[in-house]
Design brief:
Blueprint: H1 2-6, H2 24-33, E1 39-42, H3 45-56, E2 62-67, H4 70-73, H5 82-91, E3 94-97, H6 100-109, E4 116-117, H7 124-127, E5 138-142, H8 151-164, E6 169-173
Parallel strand pairs: 1-2, 2-3, 3-4, 5-6
Length: 191
Amino acid sequence: IDSMRARGHVVGAIEMRNRGLSIIPSVWRVRRLLPSYDVIHALDGNPLGIIAWLASRGTAKKVIISIVGSYSIAPLYNWKTRWLMRRAYQSAHTIVSISSFTSLELQKKLPHLHPIIIPPGIHFATFNQKHHSSSKPFLLSVGPVEERKGYHISLRAFQEAKNKIPHLQYVIVGKRPLDFHVADVSFCEHI
């Protein structure tokens, strides 16, 4: 936000953590701010995409909804939230997905939508304070160690890559132990 403002753009941000009927005050907060802005960018589908859609109804304001993972898709599988979530996604001017996987998951429920895929970026200098040097090549995964994150796929890929790059290590940074099935445990010492 600060970098956008530094470039002369007018940017506003509202923090919301509402669910259920408690989103109504947030809809009105956004609606009151609309005259000052051209675009509403919801940083996730649920509930922010729903709030943006409801707040923009009857206006010419464009809504962009970012879908940041499977929690953005989950409301489409819930009878309580499906209708609202479908309407929000269908009315969005643009949907931005963080990955092709998330985009394909959305298209399973809404096949006519075609999100733009933009992987999240970082300001490299901020996070490159200390340099890591390793004499061995490694693959790094950071995030919750859950099967829904695709570790069962990356583990198979690592196993295949390990055959071609014998010194390859796989570093997984997450909050849970690797407790789901690994096809061949002979390479686990390299994880």
